[in-house]
RNA sequence: GCCUAGGUGGCGGAAUUGGUAGACGCGCACGACUCAAAAUCGUGUGUCUUCGGGCGUGUGGGUUCGAUUCCCACCCUGGGUACCA
């Protein structure tokens, strides 16, 4: 064999490992570049060809930047806490640690074969206690923080305590739950019924430690609270909003119900505005930014209080259209709204209770699927219009969500379609407050509509009415302008085994933070990985487990805890004194290029931004956005093949004739199909049920399959794994081919049959360096003008394409270059040596091998990226396409130094011009030097 | 519905600032080498054609000497999201 890739790749992978070629340290005198891949969860299935796509692309950039003189940090690790290992443990009793180790070993083996430039000395695993010690430590920092809204940043809880000591709550503007004070256990405090969360310094000092801790818990950024959570009975745990898709759990698709539980939460809502603003400063793709914007869900409007008739209470609503307040004809509360039971009159109590119970039983999915079924129930209570004093009936309805705004709406049926439908269904009045607008069929939601019957707002539309009504609300004292965010705080406890334990112990009911020197709080051993019989989390099975002699917290942290800060740990992975040394964090700074899937838009990518902002506020890092630029690789889809079995028989008919029979379409393993032609003998051996299959073939005597593009999955038999391809074609070919498929961000089908194209390219390259008998042969003659032109054109192409992250066009650039050099029969060092450097980020093994054969002693990874010389690329003449009225008619070779006027003269003088003019007059001639000539006639 | 990315040969795709549409690769066809096959190499390959040329980048319009590229309207596909008040 001429190009013996298996030997070459084995040799260089070994040598890189022996020489620690990819180990990096901080170097003050060179610029840094941080290239990061989203670290994988090591699943049992191993890698398929879709996984390495992003890794290869980022590896190429890492190698390229290194050749360009950057000190490149390019690490890899494992997000190794997670459900699959735990579920496997539940089924088999095998410790998740074992499963995880086995899977990691397999991943590592697969990754190594592809020849990545990772600094494996920096590997991190989120399930290692030396890693999660610092996840716990960061949790402690968040626990010990509150959010000062005036400064728009987090501060240490001690600054709050100092303020309480000095002035009580006076002047404190903190991010907290609305009405937080109502959730304090009243029996433990001396506050009267008038208490609205304000207290004096004297009050504070008179509180005992337990009382103070109970108060502080309502300020902390990581806090324990009774909250309505998404409880997933099948998984036995609570889930965050982003872990639920279409009303069922993202993992497993199990139903999720609403349940009030005592849980840790993260006060991410405090950062809503900064998370939104920060998006403007980072170079991410617009659709991901948009998903985050929607998730944050900022909307401007007003909060308005409606007094309740006959009650010492009011309903607070948030509305984006306070200008339509004179169109309110009823109010709707979410069935879960806390006022419901209080205000319901005896007359309606039974039906209200029935409605509330029914709503409780519905899952999120049921509620969503019943969009068309409007339901609701009158409570018997009335609210009072803040301006007119009119009595407004109060209804409950499950189209109002407890989790958005205040869980109550002022219904303006003439201006909102849902309110309109509700009013129609229950025959409620629909007063029209728009001038010259017909609302007999549907609501008028346009912001341009002109208001009428609206007192001070008459004649205004939304834009001008807003400031007036907000000022009016404030004057009367029943409301104010407000910005509302959809984003809720993130539930942070999971009732699972395989996750980070909390660095928390309990003194009575009071949670206390474990001191730094007692970290990590290690995951205890348990006999089984299931929840206890009493429904407590699996950690409660560790009967003897104590933290600092006290009762520990039996919950674990969610999957996103460890992944929210791993990019920082890579900077200083073995530090046992800090999560990372500040000087190293300052050196490596933000991730310059982050590569990964777009599916983490509202999970990992939001939470790591959140944690980064907290760490920034607390003074541990010097930047508040983690990932400066991000590229999301598209999914690689599988190409699956089908065969057609004639119903009720074991006969298979070729695709051309399938319509002649009644057939059943079946998937067939793509490995026994070549170019859509089935290997019928292999098919018989593939599965026992096909052993005596018979075939109806086409005219050529072949069995043709049809194909489809599906996700890669074992059940479509269309999975290709990288190991097989490395075996068959080599890692360099695989790397090149994955890049050649198309733009990295685009989803595209995987089709193994075209891989031989890039494989042939590498063999052609090899032959440039070798004679017919595969002897290395290279010439030291100086290169010709043509050869230099090809080289410099290629340097320019590859450099510019890499700078704009266009990997696929680089590969065709290499092919063009090698084709040209082959035509020129070029085997000159002056040309081939720089070419190898250009190719080395893409196909490092063959590049190293040929580089060494050229007599270089150091690895090609240390070579300097060649620069291009425009003068070497210049042609003496250019073949001008001459077009007439935009249609190209003939070509005219002219000197490149000719001016526009000279080119025009040459075109006028050419005898072909007259022919294409067909007797018409030349009106104008447009000349773009070295591009085109257009004759306008 | 809304947001977002896209629509170019048989297939994957290229065309960076408005300047020769289809680079590069696959596939296909023919040829060379071979007893033969594989591999390799070479030639051709958008489409129609009366061989002059005509038509061609989802559709219809517009701007321009010139539009895959810019503008307007619409259609289709992928991804995301939704009783959000």
Main features:
about 950 residues; alpha+beta; RNA-binding; 6-stranded mixed β-sheet; 34 strands; 7-stranded mixed β-sheet
Give a structural overview.
The chain is α+β, with helices and mostly antiparallel strands. It is built from 30 helices and 34 strands. Strands 10, 11, 12, 13, 14, 15 and 16 form a seven-stranded mixed sheet that branches. Strands 23, 24, 25, 28, 29 and 30 form a six-stranded mixed sheet that branches. Strand 10 (298-308) and strand 11 form a beta hairpin. The longest helix is centred in the N-terminal third of the chain and has 19 residues, at 96-114. The model has no long low-confidence stretch (mean pLDDT 89). It binds one RNA strand of 85 nucleotides through helix 10, strand 11, strand 15, helix 14 and strand 30.
Summarize, please:
The chain is an alpha+beta fold. The model has no long low-confidence stretch (mean pLDDT 89).
